[in-house]
Structures are given as structure tokens and as C-alpha cells.
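Hey L., structure's done. Input below.
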Amino acid sequence: MIAITKLPNNHHYYHHINTTPNDDCCCPQVWVCVLQREEAVRRITERDGKTPEEAERRLDSQMAQRQMVGRANVVFCTQWAGEYTQKQVERAWAALTAHLAQSKAAATTTTNQTAAAPPKARV
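Output:
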């Protein structure tokens, strides 16, 4: 499922939601954040005090975003302000807990569990 959220200034946020478990991972849900490379370099240099070259090397040592997205159940673009990312995390969390509730009802289990608060977005 692809969800499109319109943000202020006519920006559109696209994210993919896949509710099937990831075959190559022991985690039933994988959430990934993506960011334009230039912005990632800027944030690393600002946050960690690294040079742009060090930031580039760090990014080069990581799995490519395309690969991460291909393995993810939920993908967030964190290009926007933290409040927008937080709203997207809360929406995805609500979708996940609703899916789990439906799965639970379908399995006719009788355990009562309360969903935890959604995780905080990290920008």
C-alpha cells in the first residue's frame, strides 16, 4: 500500500506500508527513514561535528537507501521538520496497531494487551 500525505508548501510525502513480515529479517516490522544525501551530510556534519568527507564516508558505508526501502514495511522521508515526521510515525503506529488488532481478532485469541505509545521520531 502506498500512502501519500500532502504537507505544507505543496510538498508531498510518499510512504510505503507493507503489512507482511520481512522474509530476510527476524523482525516482523522494519521501519526505515530516508533522506536526500545532501541533507544527510549536512545533518551529520552539524550534529556530530564531522567533516563533509567523513559524513560522505559514513553514508557510503551504509546499506543503500534503495535496498533499505526494498526490505522495509514502512518508509519515512525525514526531509521535513520533525513535527511532520512525528505525525507520520503516529499514523504508521496507529495503522500497525489496527492491523495487529485485526489479526488478533481473526485469530480469536482472548488475551488483552494494550498498545504502547508510538515511538518518538528521530530527526
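The longest strand covers residues 2-6. Residues 93 and 117 are 9 Å apart (CA to CA).

-- N.
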